Amino acid sequence: MQRLLFGGVYGTVLASVLVAALDHDSGRPDPGYDAVWVLLAALASAAAHGYAHAIAHRTAGETTVTTSTARSVLTEWPLVAAVVPTVAVLLGAYGGWWSEDAAIEAALLINTVALFGWGLWAARAAGRGWASSCRAGGVDMLLGFLIVGANVLSK
Predict the structure, then answer these.
(1) 3-state SS, residue 100
(2) Which of 127, 114, 110 is closest to 10 using CA atoms?
(3) What's the whole-model pTM score?
C-alpha cells in the first residue's frame, strides 16, 4: 500500500509540474509530442527510482542483481499510472477535442483533485477519521494549488 500511495502522489506531482512547464512561446503547440514527453519523463523517473531502491537495498552476497533491479523498477508502476490522466488529456488536445491550453488547465485541475484523493486515502489507510482525512487531503491539495499558481505566474 505504501508504494502505491508513494507512486501515486509522486506521479501526480510529477505530471502536474511537467504539464505546468509546457510553454510554446517559441513555436506551435504540439500536444502529441507533449503527451509523449510527459509519459517518457514518468517512465524515466520510475526507472530511476526503482533502480535507486535496488542499489540502496543491495546486499554484498546478492547474486540476482539483474532480477532484483528489474523487479524493483517494475514495482514503480503506480508512478507511471498516475500520469495517465495528464497524458490522456493532452492526447485529447492532439485529437482536436480541445486546445492544448484547455488540456493543461484540465490536467492541473484533475491532478489537484487527485492529490486531495491521495491525501484522503493515505489518512484513511492510517486509521484517521473522515474529518481528519479530509483535512489531510485538503493540505495535499494545496500542493496542487501551488503548482497551478506557479503556472499562472510563469505565463
Answers:
(1) helix
(2) 114
(3) 0.87
